[in-house]
């Protein structure tokens, strides 16, 4: 249970170094932070994370269950990766 607070502290430390006009990086790190803290709150309150979004495709395929916090983390990481890839192309 010590890992989420460490990860949250690292995200805050990184956010403090981001320029004010770099909105993509701010949004992506904020989404990751929000999702992580949401899942951490679930772990503290219930000792597990409640996944309530569960999708099926014609009774043959079931997508793994997830929640809004998981979605925020995935979207945040995706934006961060695209931003870093875009910055890498500019420097080359």
Descriptive overview:
This protein is mainly alpha-helical and 92 residues long. It has one domain (3-91). It has helices spanning 3-17, 23-46, 68-91, and strands at residues 56-57, 61-62. Helix 1 packs antiparallel against helix 2 (23-46) and helix 2 runs antiparallel to helix 3 (68-91). The longest helix is centred in the middle third of the chain and has 24 residues, at 23-46.
Largest sheet: 2 strands, antiparallel
Q: How many angstroms separate the termini?
A: 41 Å
- Helices, by number, come to 3
Overall mean confidence score, pLDDT? 91
Question: How do the helices and strands line up, and which of them pair or pack?
Answer:
Elements: H1 3-17, H2 23-46, E1 56-57, E2 61-62, H3 68-91
Antiparallel strand pairs: 1-2
Supply database-style keywords.
single chain, 92 residues, mainly alpha, 4% strand
Write a brief caption for the model.
This protein is mainly alpha-helical. 68% of the residues lie in helices and 4% in strands.
């Amino acid at each position: 249970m010590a890992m989420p607070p460490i990860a949250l502290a690292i995200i805050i430390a990184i956010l403090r170094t981001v320029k004010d006009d770099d909105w993509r990086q701010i949004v992506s790190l904020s989404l990751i932070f929000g999702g992580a803290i949401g899942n951490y709150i679930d772990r503290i309150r219930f000792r597990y994370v409640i996944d309530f979004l569960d999708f099926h495709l014609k009774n043959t395929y079931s997508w793994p269950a997830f929640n809004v916090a998981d979605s925020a983390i995935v979207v945040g990481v995706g934006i961060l990766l695209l931003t870093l890839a875009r910055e890498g192309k500019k420097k080359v």
